[in-house]
Amino acid sequence: MKARWIVGVFAAALGMAQAPPDLGSGGVWMPQSLADIAGKIDPPFLPWAKQRFLENQASKQNDTASRCLPPGVPRIMFQARPFEIVQTENRILFVYEGGAHVWRQVWMDGRAHPKDPNPNWLGHSTGKWDAETLVVDSVGFNDKTWLDDAGHPHTKQLHVTERLTRTSQAKMMYEVTIDDPGAYARAWMASSTLSFKKGGRLAEDICLDKLSK
Q: pTM (2 decimals)?
């Protein structure tokens, strides 16, 4: 990391464009398992959202992920299943082993979100660099997923801002801000640390095979 920073300083001094940080080529990231991302804080629920949260905790039948549907964002980033980050010139891909084997596209070409996005499981994501940090802005979610395994609900107004900062070769800080005026009185945050497995590869994982056993 230090060597790349020195190269960046010389590049800036010479007026050269600095390459973006490497977020994990040659391996996979493993999130920490965090069932309740609120931790010790009390999320600022609106009354209906509090009631829905209690219902979700009482009955996991409300959990669409248990039926092999995508777990949604940010939930998928708090489950202990590996994922790979693939960086290209105009987009970054998050490819997940778990969560129904889905992937996310983060557009890095400066485009805006659609004015009227078609709500889907993982939303529409755009990204930018803030120094060494990748900032991902996502909207356009459906309201079928939970924010975490504990059952925190959300609406189609959900706006998620994620910050990923590689702090060393082996670690990355993940921070997320949840802003959903349809379910919460104000925005709230959660965070975790991701671990890098050099040389790791994603394995085939077919969720429906597990349901059929």
A: 0.89
